[in-house]
Each structure stands twice: as structure tokens, then as C-alpha cells.
Amino acid sequence: MKEMKFYTQEEVEDLLIGKKGTPERDRYEEQLDLFLIGDAIKQARQAKNLTQEDLGKLVGVQKAQISRIENGKNLTFATVIKLFKAMGLSARLEVDSLGKIALC
């Protein structure tokens, strides 16, 4: 019986997406970061029992725009801060040693 080879997540990403520092990997990681920020906004909205339409009214945009934001599209720092403020939440920006940005 042939022995199974196990791969780490990093090895799989290197094989399927590209090695760290390549344009393909940089794009993937950027899209993942934007998706995670959008998901954090969605979770915060749901925790406040707001619909996308409710949140849109608070910040003066349509429900469709909130949907795009929650899916990691059309995200800017100004928009993220505006959304968190509209929900009465504080947002803190942290930049780690690798230059990645996280909202806390």
C-alpha cells in the first residue's frame, strides 16, 4: 500500500496559488483580506440585528452597496470606518510587521 503524503496549508497554497511574493499570491492574499474585512462587517451588522437595508440607510447607501462591501468589494478604509461608526462600534487599525492591515 502506497504511503499517503500530507501537505501543510502553506505547501498547498504554494502549489495551487503561487509562492509568497508572486503577483498571483499577492492578489489572492489581498482578496482574502478584503473578504475577511467584509465578513467582519457582516457579523457586526448581524450582531446589531440590522438588515443590509437598515445599515445602508444609516450610512446613506443602497442595500446592494452593503452587499458588495460584505463580499469584499468596493472597500475603502473610509467606508469601513463609516460603517463601524454607524453601528456604534469602534474600529482600530493595526499594521503588523509584514505590512498587512487588520481591523480590530
TrEMBL record:
Protein name from the UniProt record = HTH cro/C1-type domain-containing protein
Q: Which SUPFAM superfamilies match?
A: lambda repressor-like DNA-binding domains (SSF47413)
Recorded GO molecular functions are: DNA binding
Q: What is the lineage of its organism?
A: Bacteria, Pseudomonadati, Bacteroidota, Bacteroidia, Bacteroidales
InterPro entries in alphabetical order: Cro/C1-type_HTH, Lambda_DNA-bd_dom_sf
> Which residue range or ranges hold the HTH cro/C1-type domain?
41-93
List the signal peptide residues: none
Q: Which Gene3D superfamilies match?
A: lambda repressor-like DNA-binding domains
User: What Pfam families is this protein classified in?
Assistant: HTH_3
